[in-house]
Design goal:
globular, alpha+beta, Aminopeptidase, seven-stranded mixed sheet, 28% helix
C-alpha cells in the first residue's frame, strides 16, 4: 500500500460489508485524537453506518485501490443556510502525509458545486492544533477566514477552530490533478 498513483484513489459509497475496514480507522488511537468517535464496539459501528452513514446525503469512503481507508463527508445546511455545506474528513493514520486527503478534498471541490447547484459555499472547520489538516485545506485551494474561539467541544473540552471556505466562484481555480 506504500506505492500508489492518483488513479488508485477513489471516492465511493461505503458498504456495510466493509465494517472491518471502517473499524481500522474508526478505532485508530491517532485518528481519535482529532476525530470524535461514537462507538467502541463493532455493533456500535454497524449501527453508526446504518443510522448515519447510509442515509447521509454525501458520505463517501476514501478508497486506495478500492479499499476504504477513510471517509469524506459533505453535510448540507437547510433553510436560509442552504447555500452552505461543511466538508469533513478522516483517514487511517498509516496513510497520513501521502497527499490522499488533499486529493480527496480536491475531488469533492471539483464536483460538489455541480452536484448541488444551489451551493455557494463549502466550508471546513479545523482544530487550531491540527496543522496537517490545516495544510490539507490550504493545498486544496480553500481560503483561511479566521479562528472561531472555543467553537466546539472535542472530548468534552472547548477547542478553537479555524474556518476555511471555498466558493462556487472559486471553483474554476481548483484542479485536483495538481
Amino acid at each position: 500500500d506504500d506505492e500508489f498513483s492518483i488513479s488508485d484513489i477513489s471516492l465511493r459509497l461505503l458498504d456495510l460489508s466493509e465494517i472491518d475496514d471502517f473499524m481500522a480507522w474508526a478505532t485508530d488511537d491517532k485518528v481519535s485524537r482529532t476525530w470524535e468517535t461514537h462507538y467502541s464496539s463493532k455493533e456500535e459501528a454497524v449501527n453508526y453506518i446504518v443510522d448515519f452513514v447510509i442515509p447521509h446525503p454525501w458520505y463517501r469512503a476514501i478508497c486506495l485501490k478500492d479499499r476504504p481507508i477513510g471517509a469524506i463527508i459533505v453535510t448540507p445546511n437547510s433553510g436560509i443556510d442552504i447555500c452552505r455545506a461543511e466538508v469533513g474528513y478522516v483517514l487511517g493514520s498509516k496513510y497520513w502525509g501521502k497527499g490522499i486527503v488533499t486529493l480527496a478534498v480536491k475531488m469533492v471541490a471539483s464536483t460538489i458545486f455541480f452536484e448541488w447547484p444551489h451551493l455557494e459555499r463549502l466550508e471546513a472547520l479545523v482544530d487550531v492544533h491540527n496543522p496537517a489538516s490545516l495544510r490539507v485545506l490550504e493545498k486544496a485551494g480553500f481560503q483561511r477566514e479566521g479562528v472561531l474561539r472555543k467553537y466546539c467541544l472535542h472530548k468534552g473540552r472547548p477547542i478553537d477552530a479555524v474556518i476555511f471556505s471555498l466558493l462556487s466562484t472559486d471553483h474554476p481555480h481548483v484542479n485536483y490533478f495538481m
